[in-house]
Design a protein that fits this description.
Length: 364
């Protein structure tokens, strides 16, 4: 597996996806190795829940990091790990799909979303990401898409009509039984609006802060969990604005701290302009939280009631402000159908793709 920064406990949607999925696949008897980017790893683990971990060096530079790491990962997969199947995640790393095929390995490519739509990338990077999407969709033996939106994209652009639709998943909630962490943050149970994710422009936390401040209310606080992978002007400005205006920033958190914030939030907000199929939204739904999401196609695929969406506009936050007021005054307890997002079901679907990939290989 490559295209992820690594597991366990590394920030990112693809990383969460891999951390949940591949231990379940290893349980089914597969020999699974996740190749990690060494600069992101804070541990010396060689395995995690039955998954082997193999670290290779990387250059922590936004533009070329993923492609350089993927090249090294594929080379290691062939000559050190003797892999038969390489599973590449995301369109950037997929640029090296033909390289893996030339080395004689089968390739499964998971398309997590059109990353070239992310605001952080310049023109050259966006061209490379589009090229990666083309290479993955054209040369991978099997393609997995995490939403119907992405499936429609690759049908229209590349005529690829045999992709397997396998959603992101969500684990059962771990409900916190005390609110000690809330006291540390200076917030009250059910009296805060919660958001989480990487500090990048397309997550639109800056618009959320502006919309929240425009309410001029003192009953609720705004809490944002997350951080930047690599500090830049956007993340620095976002943190400065948050600190000046009393917004609570927790940094990157997982485990009990995250469970506590999800257990006691009054409202969860995801104001993104770009997503694949957001695991953070599914997590909030699993805790039974009221949610408010931008009306982008990826968020609407979750099929929430219309009252859970606001009309996204990249420069005017009036719609978000009005929606925040409406949701904060809403008294109805939400109910969600999360049956399509079961990780065990997703692991079974993924192993079926592997079997399909290897069906003509002797011994399988």
């Amino acid at each position: 597996m490559t295209g992820t920064r690594g597991i366990p406990g590394i920030l990112g949607g693809v990383e969460t996806h891999c951390e949940e999925l591949f231990p379940r696949i290893a349980e089914k008897g597969y020999d699974v190795t996740v190749i990690r980017r060494k600069n992101y790893v804070k541990d010396r683990l060689t395995s995690y829940k039955g998954v082997s971990l193999f670290d290779v060096p990387d250059n922590k530079k936004k533009s070329f990091e993923a492609i350089l790491h993927t090249f090294r990962a594929i080379w290691a997969a062939k000559w050190k790990l003797r892999a038969e199947v390489v599973h590449i995640h995301a369109v950037g790393p997929a640029i090296l799909t033909p390289f893996a095929r030339l080395l004689g390995m089968k390739v499964v490519f998971t398309h997590h979303g059109p990353d070239y739509d992310r605001e952080k990338w310049g023109k050259a990077a966006k061209c490379m990401l589009r090229f990666g999407e083309r290479m993955g969709c054209t040369f991978a033996n099997e393609v997995i898409v995490i939403s119907n939106v992405i499936n429609d994209i690759i049908k229209q652009k590349y005529g690829r009509r045999d992709a397997s639709l396998i959603y992101n998943g969500v684990s059962a909630p771990v409900t916190a039984d005390n609110a000690t962490y809330l006291k540390e943050l200076g917030i009250e149970a059910h009296k805060y609006i919660f958001a989480m994710g990487r500090f990048v422009p397309e997550k639109n936390f800056h618009l959320l802060i502006q919309a929240f401040l425009s309410l001029h209310q003192s009953e609720y606080k705004l809490v944002i969990a997350g951080d930047a992978d690599i500090e830049d002007d956007y993340s620095r400005k976002l943190k400065s604005s948050a600190n000046k205006n009393g917004v609570v920033l927790t940094g990157f958190i997982k485990g009990s701290k995250l469970h506590t914030l999800l257990s006691y939030a009054g409202l969860f907000v995801i104001p993104s302009s770009h997503e694949g199929l957001p695991i953070s939204l599914l997590e909030a739904m699993s805790y039974g939280l009221p949610v408010l999401a931008s009306d982008i196609p990826a968020n609407k695929e979750v099929n929430l009631p219309s009252s859970c969406y606001f009309r996204y506009n990249d420069s005017v936050n009036t719609n978000l402000s009005e929606a925040l007021i409406r949701k904060m005054n809403e008294k109805t307890k939400p109910s969600y159908d999360l049956s399509p997002y079961n990780w065990d079901k997703i692991a079974k679907q993924t192993t079926e793709v592997y079997r399909k990939t290897m069906k003509n290989v002797p011994g399988y």
